Structure prediction request, 158 residues.
Amino acid sequence: MRRSALSIFVPLALGLALAACRDDQDPAGAADLWTRVQSSGYREWPRPRGYSTREPSFTLHGGSVDIFLNPTLAAARGSSTSLAEWPVGSLVVKDGYSGNSDSLSIVAVMEKRQDGWYFAEYSADGSVLFSGKPKVCVDCHDARKDYSDWLFSVERPR
Ligand code: HEC
Prediction:
């Protein structure tokens, strides 16, 4: 079910991959977030259900992806009451690899702040490709706005 629902994004992703360039709206903030993410040990964090190992990506983030949920988000997804939104402080990191190789191509991050999700995408060396609320990120993740408060790989408790 999850795969077939997401497969509609593949043609869109291909179109966007061709059009994509950079949109670094917040260079200093993105650099700070990179430092925090790199020092967090995020590759030890829990993963979404269905992503217990590296999985093929449905979008332009790379051929295959590892996704990690910080402790705030991991705790919230286990909530026994319905959540309209993920709590402020929730953070998701997605490592995107080229094809089926072990070559890291991008690191995508979403962090929930008071004013909503902050998006960032980096190349493997940490140079910033996108930060802030880039239209390309917002317009696609918007498809999951109500269903799971903008996240594709995690379902909000309902
Ligand atoms: C064409 C649609 C599309 C665009 C554009 C897009 N994403 Fe995603 N994103 C997805 C899908 C689908 C997933 C689920 C995992 C996968 O298939 O790679 C995802 C997953 C993620 C995740 C893991 C959390 C989750 O929602 O599952 C992060 C973090 C993320 N994207 C960040 C970004 C950032 C940052 C940008 C902009 C640079 C961006 N995304 C642009 C479709 C998109």
Observations:
- The pocket of heme C is lined by residues 6, 9, 12-13, 16, 57-59, 61, 65, 67, 92, 94, 108-110, 119-121, 130, 134, 136-137, 140-141, 151-153 (CB under 6 Å).
- The CA atoms of residues 109 and 128 lie 11 Å apart.
- The chain has a mean pLDDT of 89.
